[in-house]
Design a protein that fits this description.
2 domains, five-stranded antiparallel beta sheet, 12 helices, Argininosuccinate synthetase, chain A, domain 2, Rossmann fold, alpha/beta
């Protein structure tokens, strides 16, 4: 039997859903609601959002700056893994949710709350990501998911409810798609984007210019890595959050990082999302470039076989699972020698490798050269080929009966 709920900590963004949820929770449970706001680099006026939460009915609003932790402990581990879901999605939302939920649980403990709540819909992935984290970190907390409980069936009804209660919201019937922003990306979904044949509107984007509007001259930059972790741009060492913010500006100016995806949600349906991830796209290309000259072939192939599983664990919300800890340990081990610099060429939406170097490079010009050298005897390849082709010759000679 559920305990009486006296205090709830809500993951609050100031958007349509969570703005309505504060008022609804107070009406439904007659309890105190504390709004928790994570500063993930979403480039919003968090003071105004905090004030809005109080005006909407929250007894308290907590703002916590988690930008460095987000990049250092969530984004960079995923970069080390080259994690991409279904070949295109860099998972900016997926990586943010477990951190928000972790901080929300900590706030619930410090505030003596009985429950935690989120604004994720009953059709999406975020409900799973939030609730898996709650249960992994503090299973004693009660979980409230308004989208699975309340009387509203659509965001249009939420807009009407907000209007009746004087709650200002950033979504209108004329511009109904929703956005989720953080330091890694901005995502857009819903509304006019629900038609997978419809082109996205150009004025929608917040981080990137269109490739057509990007500069007519290419931009070159260098990114340095130490043990798989990005540490500097063009010789300047930067903190994780500062480095990613700088790459977002550079990539955005050059139209880097837009993708239009129809993805498979964990809950079982397909969903169309449009994403812009300028800095993340640059880091993925640069990381692969440094790996290409520093990572052992068999380690690379084994690590690459883990990428789909790693991406699934992130996308499905299993960040705080034992299997995630195990696979992250393997990824971290594979990165011990991934130290070096990638030179990239950015031009009208394209991010291309223009060079790579490393003090621990496995690339040996004296071995690979087409010119005469003493380091490799081509005659050795004959025996290598015969031994590895032996089973093929045996198959050919078997015949059929």
């Amino acid at each position: 039997m559920a305990r009486e709920i006296r205090k709830i900590v809500l993951a609050y963004s100031g958007g349509l859903d969570t703005s309505v949820i504060i008022r609804w929770l107070i009406e439904r449970y007659g309890c105190e609601v504390i709004a928790f706001i994570a500063d993930l680099g979403q480039n919003e006026d968090l003071i105004a959002i905090k004030e809005k939460a109080i005006k909407t009915g929250a007894s308290k609003a907590i703002v916590e700056d988690v930008r460095e932790e987000f990049v250092r402990d969530y984004i960079f581990p995923a970069i080390k893994a080259n994690a991409v879901y279904e070949g295109t999605y860099l998972m900016g939302t997926s990586l943010a949710r477990p951190l928000i939920a972790k901080k929300q649980v900590a706030a619930a403990r410090s505030e003596g709350a009985d429950a935690v709540a989120h604004g994720a819909t009953g059709k999406g992935n975020d409900q799973v990501r939030f609730e898996f984290t709650y249960m992994a970190l503090d299973p004693a907390l009660q979980v409230i998911a308004p989208w699975r409980e309340w009387e509203f069936d659509s965001r249009s009804e939420l807009i009407e409810y907000a209007g009746r209660h004087g709650i200002p919201v950033p979504v209108t019937k004329e511009k109904p798609y929703s956005c989720d922003a953080n330091l890694f990306h901005v995502s857009y979904e819903g509304g006019l984007l629900e038609d997978p044949w419809a082109a996205y509107p150009e004025d929608m984007f917040a981080l990137t210019v269109s490739p057509e509007a990007a500069p007519d001259e290419p931009l070159y930059l260098e990114i340095e890595f130490e043990k798989g972790i990005p540490v500097g741009i063009n010789g300047r060492r930067l903190s994780p959050a500062s480095l990613l913010a700088e790459l977002n500006k550079i990539g955005g100016t050059n139209g880097i990082g837009r993708v239009d995806v129809v993805e498979n949600r964990y809950i079982g349906m397909k969903s169309r999302g449009v994403y812009e991830t300028p800095g993340g796209t640059i880091l993925h290309v640069a990381h692969r470039a440094v790996e290409s000259i520093t990572m052992d072939r068999e380690v690379m192939h084994l690590r690459d076989s883990l990428i789909p599983r790693y991406a699934e664990l992130v996308y499905y919300g299993y960040w705080f699972s034992p299997e995630m800890r195990m696979i992250q340990s393997a990824i971290d081990s594979s990165q011990e020698n991934i130290t070096g610099t990638a030179r990239l060429k950015l031009y009208k939406g394209n991010c291309m490798v223009a060079g790579r170097r490393s003090p621990v490079s496995l690339y040996r010009p004296e071995i690979v050269t087409f010119e005469k050298g003493e380091s490799f005897n081509p005659k050795d390849a004959g025996g290598f080929i015969k031994i590895n082709a032996l089973r093929l010759k045996m198959q050919a000679g078997r015949g059929t009966k």
